[in-house]
Amino acid sequence: MTAYDELMAFQHDTEALAQISGRLGWDQETVMPRGAVAQRGLEMAAIEAVLHARRSDPRVGDWLERATPADAAAAAQLREIRRGYDRARKVPGELAKRLAQVTSEAQGKWAAARAAGDVAAFLPVLDEVVRLKREEGQALAAGTGDVYDAMLEDYEPGTTGAQIAAIFDAMRPRLVALRAAIRDRPAPKDLMGRFDEAAQLRLSHDLARTFGYDLYRGRIDKAVHPFSSGSGADVRITTRTAEDDPFNCLYSTIHEVGHAAYEQGIDAGYALTPLGRGVSMGVHESQSRIYENQIGRGRAFTGWLFGRMREAFGDFGIDDAEAFHAAVNKVRDGFIRTEADEVQYNLHIMLRFDLERALMSGDLQVGDLETAWNDRFAADFGYAVDRPANGCLQDVHWSVGLFGYFPTYALGNVYAGCLWEAMNGAVPDLGEGLARGDVSAATGWLRENLQRHGGLYPPREVIGRASGRAPDEAPLLAYLEAKFGEIYGL
Prior knowledge:
The protein is mainly α and 490 residues long.
């Protein structure tokens, strides 16, 4: 075997172990007994210790020095392995193990505190997570870089906090102006009635299949916070239900199917290698957001969905497909990021981005987080947070140590805007298929131009190759202003 062959055989087993770790995380959020939290923390710590040892194994460095790539894919494999190896070597093994244990335990404490509305019960463990993440960030930055930028590398390689801040600064004024204009216009009607949970879940499964989710290689479960997990032949998603809001279930499902379809669409030859997963969370989010919003909330598709909703639930107070399209896209006050309309969603992300940067720099202390969140929310949205579950306790991310993850949600929207612009130019009669509930032309274009590549190209490059332009916020803002200008008669 060549050095490259030996390295890839070793990496194959590392990737398989990482998938097992991910499956433990899926289990914890879906079916794990509540009394197993402490033991699961020890289990996660044990497997993380093994993974860290493999990722930082000196043999990897030796293989990397001697390996010769035979083609572009092999060169990309080496690029991604080297990036992971260099990062793993900077983080002490005991720190990686401790982080895995604490974040596993913190997840359960967050869920309990959220249910009880008790911020004080969560702050001690969050304080420990923040302390450990700062320590990790300092190790990764190695005294020469920004701690937050070092964390971003885990989720959006090659992007800095300053670059993201510049994009957000360009987006914020136009989003605020659009929201202000919409507030002066009459609001669309809401759905009326109660919506049976079993019927919601049946329709959500139908929608998952409509959008190309392969249930032979996946499954749908319920969770407090919808998510997607896994890659290759085992890609699972979760959704949630609310009796008075079926869109919560249906569009959470479509969103997570976008993530899952990306993983299922990657070239099978990359399975259990660094290229066999999404290249970044921003690119991942571009798929979930374009499935959910540009495709799923577009006029053509909602016209078809209106008929399916009537079949599933009967009369719900909306008379025609046009009014239904407006209801699906209604801009409304709200606290929850995952339920936010397209106009306001990115404002939720900007709030979290600024707060977590301040936490990592030490400019904001954990004990002051609730006040800082509430003050910023009131300033940005014009009304007060009513309870912690709608404020700083609503998201799972910080409890599990995902600092640097939040901004990728908004980057995903930016990328989706570029992709949607390109898709409409490349796919003739796109709307005709969507109006029949046939999304295959749209999803097929995404699979061919982006999903199949997995980690072959860096994030901005894969978006640029698919969309034919360097990614920026202009297409997204133009799409939002056109869509909501038409709905609200602006």
